[in-house]
Amino acid sequence: MDLRFKTAFLGFHAPSRTFHSLRPSVPLPPVDRRLNVAAYAISLLPSPLPANPALIDAATGDTVSFPELLSQIRSLAAALRSRAGIARGHCVFVLAPMRLDIPPLYLALLSVGAVVSAGNPASTPREIAHFISLTNPRVAFATSETAAKLPAGLAAIILDSPRFRSFLDGDGGEAAEEVAQSDVAIVKFSSGTTGMMKAAAASHRNMIAIVAGFHSLRNPAAERRRGGPEATVLGTPLFHGMGYNFFLKGLALGETTVLTGGRARVKEMVQAAERYRVNSLTATPPVVVKMANWSEPLDLVALEHVTCGGGPLPEAAAVRFMKRFPNVYGSSETGTISLMIDQDECRRLRSVGRLVQNVEAMLVDTTTGERLSVGQTGELWLRSPSIMLGYVGNEDANDATFDSSGWLKTGDLCYFDEDGFLFIVDRLKELIKCGAAPVSPAELEHLLQLLPGIADAAVVPYPDEEVGQVPMAFVVLQPGINLSEEEIMDFIAKQVIPYKKLRKVVFIDSIPKTPTGKIARAELRNHSVFSSMSKP
Description:
The structure is a single chain. This protein is an alpha/beta fold. The protein has 3 domains: 3-21 and 359-427, Luciferase, Domain 3 (Luciferase, domain 3), CATH 2.30.38.10; 37-347, Rossmann fold (3-Layer(aba) Sandwich); 431-534, GMP Synthetase, Chain A, domain 3. The protein has a 7-stranded mixed β-sheet, with helices on both faces. A 7-stranded mixed β-sheet has the order 8-7-5-6-9-10-20, sandwiched between helices. Strand 21 (408-416) and strand 22 (422-427) form a beta hairpin. The chain is globular, with a radius of gyration of 24 Å.
């Protein structure tokens, strides 16, 4: 096959050296049309409304129908305006576990033009104070349990109070605020693996593009086969980007979303999948790893796929998962950028899928600034209507993240293979600078996972007088396994160029991770092995 034809077919435009989605483009509403993402998602619902529940609380079995959900949204929107004084442009902070009243609250806030920011209820008061300092909310919504973590002076509406219940049960009132698509809809907080968390703002237009992309993938044939719309266990909460995106997907497609409340354990999520015969499950990497190692009998006959996001999933865990659940395909996703949509695509274990609709990408050489081609590794730059607006109150971060043409510099080292699949090699900021040569921690971590007896591993830089930094590994051994530091270093040395060899191995009980499964490298760099260097 002619190479020029092949690369064009695979979404690579050679003259501009840009990559484009292989999936059909999705039309969006006119940009100047006044429209909020809640109204847009609701407009995609079939008529008559689906008979299946819109929401199920896995902890209690309580359900909310689609007519009830829409009624609650209208009632809440009216009460938020008239009784809580919340209007277009006001920022609102939400600090609550997954509950049946959280989805209608989010949608009502969006429908009146408020900006929704949400924190993890497990966060400390110090972390929550930082969130609030970034967004300056007018009011917070919390439960009687989480409200104690809010800083003094911030007005709060308690979800498990008679006042809020009356908001849900009131009349619909006047029409929703006319919100511009360019208005900020949500503010999401970054995972903060390399420093203090940043607040990323997304517009209604950004969210509408995401919903439109999901809706374009609707599969009527699959719905007929299973006898109705999909049912999904939402294993990621709404304060997490993936959970929020997949909830909006469920709303727009008329699917049933099963909520796992509080800090749900993996067992509770799996039991919910069994009980409600769900077809889909969203999960972070730690959940998939635990499912892959599951030893108890499971009745997941209806489960078709698991979507994993928020962090890297070790290939060994993905292989174990497929062996444990041979009839379930697992897919990786990067939120608004790439996705796997069928069983064939999901066989690319280390890939995060193909570019989603309406996304264009570049790979840029970090030294020369040259645009790269298929199979070459460089920093991933992106442009799409689904890309965030920028970071709130952090112009330095915005200047470093966006170029003058609107390209977002992801900070990820990536490549596209010949079939259009995207592979993330590592984070630029996490590369180890061994002399003039960069070393990828992710590459070494992948190799360590292949050594029998290693349960988990993380690679970080270790100071070296001669070359500046060298790779060192923190390793968790499986029970009953005795591997020495020399054996591990020899294993790696046989598979890499000399400058990539491990120079030190430290055995620990567990690798610290963020809630989404990313390695908390800052914690590892505070390990006693580093502090001991300054001692005589």
